[in-house]
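PROTEIN FOLDING TASK:
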Amino acid sequence: MTSRLHIRVEGIVQGVGFRPFVHLLAERLNLAGWVLNSSAGVEIEVEGERVQEFLEELRQRPPPLALLEQVEAEPLPPIGAQGFQILASSEDEAPITLIPPDVATCPDCLREMNDLADRRYQYPFLNCTHCGPRFTIIERLPYDRARTAMKAFSLCPDCAREYADLRDRRYHAQPVACPHCGPRLELIEGTRHWDGEEALERSRRLLEDGRILAVKGLGGFHLATDATCEEAVDRLRRRKGRPAKSLAVMVPSLAEAREIAELSPLAEELLVSWQRPIVLLPRREGTLAPSIAPDNGRVGVMLPYTPLHHLLLEGFTALVMTSANESEEPIVASNEEALMKLEGIADAFLLHDRPIIQRLDDSVQVIAGARPMMVRRARGYAPGPFRLVQSFPPTLACGPELKNTFALSKRDVLFLSHHIGDLQNLETYQHYQRSIAHLEELYALEPEVVAHDLHPQYLSTRYALSLPARRKVAVQHHHAHIAAVLFEAGETGPAIGVACDGTGYGEDGAIWGMEFFLSSRGSSKRLGHLAYVPLLGSEEAVRQPWRMAASHLFASVGEGALPLLVRLFPQPSPSTWEVLWRQWRAGFHSPPTSSAGRLFDAVSALLGFPGAISYEGQAAIRLERLAEQGRHSPSIPLSLPLREGAPFLLDPSPMLVQLAERVVADEAIDRSALAFSFHLALTDAIVASSKRIRLEHSLSLVVLAGGVFVNILLLQMTQEMLEAEGFRVLVPQRLPPNDGAIAVGQAVTAFARLEEEGCV
């Protein structure tokens, strides 16, 4: 019997070959009708005898890159339609289309690029419906060529024929291009210029000679050099002013990845996925330059994700591919900006003439146990959607100050932005504002609710308070961490929330960082925390970990810690230590903190971390590496006793005195064993605290969140020991444990409070 359906599909359905898939499916089932892109997603009408079969196949077997969030079908009276058409895009409805992410080059395009007889042989910008740029080139929706960075490139007859051919895999591939009509390479080296193939060949020769190349990619520029050449890596570090932070490397294939890192099946799966993230992997010694990751037992590895990357890597084992930016600034995105800002760092500039609409860093993942965990969510994943259980008023969650992301909601979809960075930098803050405006415009959003951090001086908070939204919701930093993990797991709470973090503004005005909560999405009650110690010198204590070691020793033995400190740290002078003791005692410029991050800094300093850090988390990363080396050594008894009270306290200061005395008494002591014993003691304390809360509140669900849990050793030990005690443990996976998830936590907390108040 003939019937007719109107079908509305929401999700990632534009830029993924969805309309030709629909057309061919309709033809195969002998159905009439039409399909079009709309700002709501994709609209379809089908008429014939097999419309239910069509609907079932649409739902069960969509194109590989499509993500169907919602499929609604409405029966209509048959009208005797004939034939099937792809109609022009409609802009009649409010946007809800999910923006397709950038996709790594597909195998078919790679075969063409390496085929001497193909017209796209060695072309650095070939793509098709199944791969290529998406989010980074979209100006507005619906996703059509005229609304992208490709609008300046008119299709040649051959590309136009492919674009219009329903059975070609480049049918309506918006970035489609070839050497005759698409973007072109240009290399600038001083006053000399090369174009096309000559630019590529000269770039390879420069890399072979150990030079530094600024390479324009999908979402911005990379700085590239030979990752196996210590002289080249050292030169890059000196020029960029990045003395120690790990550098990501790109390798041609899994074979080379196995040479430089230990690969599990899951690691291989992540590396070859179409998202192509950087994956942090256990490093093998011998191939890479020693200074690639001096503090870290892991190295960040990724595979090529653009044709240009594949072409550049020919003949190399590994290239450094690190984001091109000045310290703390956003990734450089335009040719003009690169030539100005990277002068003095890069020896040459490999440019192209396709504009980058949205700056986008590489995503970073790590493997925790048998599961991947996001560390930085950007290219390939952002601004990927999260489905909400119901519709909520349009909401903007402004995120944190550091490692910022923001979140926007429309109806029952929550969009998390790409990694923005640290808002304390003016250019990053401006990038943050532009990125919010861009997504609001894409989705035609005017937020009615704005969620923000509790800290009154965060730029994200001040931005939130400047907006005209009718409702503002302040969310404590660590509650947002816990709420984000609950949301990702589909839980509402209550749960035992364990936040191990660096910095978060507390409800009492102190700097929180290791907290135990009774948490749900909408509320939290602090039940316990690490005992407060002064942050000796405020921000100076973050940059100089020995200050936190001193603060803990002063907290335990007072002025009696001075002889220990003089022996442990050659700098500062004994007279300066006296001044610091008086500053600590007076609390001058030294706010109280319960930070787990600062505790790791203190232990790292006691076990040999020298001087000041050059990047965030450096001392803690070095401590984790030391502990990994000591995990098979005999452990040394250490403990963080739990002191009863409301809230209860964990006091680490006596343990740090014990560590200091052991180091002073025996310079040859196994510091790796001490580092591992510290991790074990902290894990024991978390388990003991959770058991205490379970006894009082009858809860067995534990949430682990916060930036300190990027420490995989600590995360795995804690999870395993909690599960051995009968707890069910939630850890972040699709969201980072660090501040990159705060915006999601702010948003879902705001939603929960609106529900409680009956406002939705």
In short: The CA atoms of residues 607 and 671 lie 6 Å apart. Residues 533-733 form a domain with the Nucleotidyltransferase; domain 5 fold (CATH 3.30.420.40). The two ends are 43 Å apart (CA to CA). The chain has a mean pLDDT of 93.
